[in-house]
Amino acid sequence: MPILFHPSSGEFHLYNREISYILEILENGHLGHVYFGNRLTDREDFRYLTEYASRDMGACPFEGRRNFSLEHLKQEYPAFGAGDPRYPAFEMERADGSRVVDFRYREHRIIPGKPRLEGLPAVYTQEDGEAETLEITLEDPAIHMQILLSYTIFRDEPAIARSARFVCQGPEPITLLRAMSGCLDLPDKDYQMVELAGAWARERHIHTRELDCGVQGVYSLRGCSSHQFNPFLALKRRETTECQGEALGFSLVYSGDFLAQAEVDNFDVTRVILGIHPQEFRWELAPGESFQTPEMVMAYSRQGLNGMSQTFHRLYRSRLARGVWRDRERPILINNWEATYFDFNEEKILEIARKAQELGIELFVLDDGWFGKRNQDNASLGDWYPNREKLPDGIAGLARKIEALGMKFGFWMEPEMVNKDSDLFRAHPDWVLADARRPYSHARNQYVLDFSKEEVVDCVYRQIRKILQEAPVSYIKWDMNRSFSEVFSNGNGRAWQGKVRHQYILGVYRLYERLTQEFPEILFESCASGGARFDPGMLYYAPQAWTSDDTDAVERIRIQYGTSLAYPLSSMGSHVSAAPNHQVFRNTSLETRANVAYFGTFGYELDVTRLTPAEQEAVRRQVAFMKAHRRLIQFGTFYRLQSPFEGNSSAWMVLSEDGSQALLAYFRILQPPQGKFERIRLAGLEPTALYQVTEAGRDWGAHYGDELMYAGFSVSDFSSGVGREAYERQGDYFSRLFQLHRV
Ligand code: DGJ
Fold it and tell me: What parts of the chain have a pLDDT lower than 50?
């Protein structure tokens, strides 16, 4: 995995077995981009790949040379102006208002491993030799500014992690107006852009569109990465499928406002930029200060979208997630939210816990409503002490009683928020992100605490720490239920206002860091009204996230399929809930609900005391099944096989780390009359190995890997029944789960 510098051509070549990334020092000292893709044999000089063109109106730095125009050159970290009018990677302003900059190569170093990013989540290395990092320093001496561009290549992953650091050396201050994490100029536009978009209860649906001239992309200005879009995009060739063809993935390790954009210019050059959204961002740097951007991870695949996703899965599961839970099988939990909402007392909670324990469930999660005077959503956020009317012995008492049943205990919190009806708000009305001279927009009767202020974070930290010190707590669900509106940091002066949205996220990260360091055994699950902050930044602190408030099995097929584009199964909170479902009121079988929920961290979100004896027996079997298969599911290799966005049925599979076992899930939304024959082609198997296929104990024979992958496996073979009997067993929202064992 070397990073080479060729002095004669001024080129850097980062490569491993699978990929090459090549950049160069251009004639004017700026950095040019040469290539990112399948690995190339190294050579001294790739400059023939740098294309020059003489175009009318293109501004050129060298007098008399009409073909050196930055507008028509592929660049690494482009500035605005200076001849390139496309959207830039960064922009800054001097005290006199000038935004003209000229950053040139100054020096570089190549270092083993990967330095941590101060205060920010980032992919890391664990052992020597896993990665190498190239740091290039650019300098604009006229304004005494440096930009440190960092590129890490991993030995075993077709991925590059990038970020930028701005250093103001003085004497004059500089204001950053835009500081993206990275930019990639690609030589053509023959791609389809794949993005994850949605809304509350239908997060991360896959949307695909042709790239075309102009600007296209996704973003958030909501203060969190959002339900609406995800800090991710992929470019794939038109012929690329789940299992074949070229795909590039771009992912931002960040949880706040972001922009992920592809701009196609009039010569079909595609420029991808990712980073903190420049809208509302204005960061003053005093002499001696620096600004570190979040990290962007780029993955390259020739094995289709699955190849790209699997790179993100491996990296994010094992080199982004941290802590003792990273590599542990996740506990099967029961959460009381959809069972009781706010209406519970200790007796009811213990009744659910007792039954859950009997069924084999391992962890009880007490959701919203246990603190202050919280009986509905209009009070007590901010008051993190137990409601003694509901819990006479507090959290500590309840936790001990649950532990005595043989289960672990966890609870819900929403530390970034406050209700007006709370002791915290009454004591500190100025701690809310709002302009007190104007009306505040509420959402769910709550307001956002100003986490850009250290004292606010500190106060919340002390309250939570007190509970964790007193009670045996094994799990925390950290929620965040509204987006930003009137963002103003009271009393912090003008300059702070351009920093506050990023400072807020840094405050959230600091609180996470303190709590996870101090209580390393606690499993954290992030949540934001379901999946509004399902992003790589959160995974650094919380190895799993509540995927969506929508627990309907049919909706979850789409949500989990889309989420898997960038995120591993071990990160997806997935529960079996009641029927009819509480979000879409659909009735699905208990079997289908479990068949979807298995592919994640798994748990239950219903009142188990109301299940019939037959249902209880089914749940007992499901829990046992998950215990036996969760290592395979959470740490295996996941393949999307058939997209739920393209038809009535869908399929996915997961293959164990050693390849000896697999699970294949097939879902059919509506029962067609006289349905077509359907075969699913599996993936990732050894062509000549024999696999025994079973379905709930029923033997479907032994088949070679090549048969299963190339001829396919029939999921419409219902030879077990005839006529009406066979149909009745199916119906709408039908699913099948097959197990494969290598013989
Ligand atoms: C939103 C979450 O997504 C739900 O699971 C639940 O915890 C509620 N908040 C509680 O208010």
Answer: none
Residue of 366, 444, 476, 481 with the most ligand 1 atoms within 8 Å of its CB, for mutation: 481
Sign, Cα dihedral of 695, 700, 706, 712: negative
Dist CA 643 CA 304 (whole Å)? 14
Atom nearest to 367 CA in ligand 1:
7
Evaluated on CA atoms 202, 204, 205, 211, the torsion sign reads positive
From the list 216, 170, 169, the residue with the least C-alpha distance to 192 is 216
Residues recognised as catalytic: 479, 549
CB atoms within 10 A of CB 161: 28
For the question of whether the overall pTM of this predicted structure is more than 0.85, the answer is yes
Strand partners, 417: 448
**Strand-pair partners of 153:** 132, 160
For residue 674, what pLDDT is reported?
Answer: 85
Domain ranges of the chain: 89-318, 649-742
600-611 pLDDT tens trace = 999 999 999 999
Q: How far is the CA of 376 from the centre of ligand 1 (A)?
A: 12
The ligand 1 atom at the shortest distance from the C-alpha of residue 530 is 3
Domain 89-318, architecture per CATH = Distorted Sandwich (2.70)
Ligand 1 site residues (CB inside 6 A) read 337, 367-368, 412, 479, 481, 527, 529-530, 546, 549
For residue 612, the CA-to-ligand 1 centroid distance in Å is: 27
Ligand 1 atom nearest to 546, measured from its CA: 3
Task: Name the residue with tokens 């003694």.
Answer: 388
Residue-by-residue DSSP string for 422-464? SHHHHH-GGGBSS-TTSPPPPBTTBEEB-TTSHHHHHHHHHHH
CA–centroid distance, residue 481 to ligand 1 (Å): 8
| Residues 268-299 pLDDT 10s | 999 999 999 999 999 999 999 999 999 999 99
What's the residue count for the chain? 743
Buried b (16+ CB within 10 A) or exposed e, 203-226: bbbbeeeebeeeebbbbbbbbbbb
Nearest CA to ligand 1 atom 9: 529
For the domain covering 649-742, report its CATH number. Answer: 2.60.40.1180
What distance in Å separates the CA atoms of residue 732 and residue 735, rounded to the nearest whole number? Answer: 9
Identical fold between 89-318 and 649-742: no
Distance 477 CA to ligand 1 centre (A): 9
Q: Whose CA is nearest to atom 11 of ligand 1?
A: 368
Helices (H) and strands (E) in the chain — how many of each? 14, 39
Q: How many CA atoms lie within 13 A of 363 on its CB side?
A: 24
Query: Nearest CA to 434 among 190, 223, 642, 629?
Result: 223
Closest ligand 1 atom to Cα of 477: 7
Distance of CA 443 to the CA centre of its chain: 24
Single-letter amino acid code for the residue at 15? Y
Q: Whose CA is nearest to atom 1 of ligand 1?
A: 529
404 C-alpha to center of ligand 1: Å? Answer: 27
Return the number of other C-beta atoms located less than 10 Å from residue 627's C-beta.
15
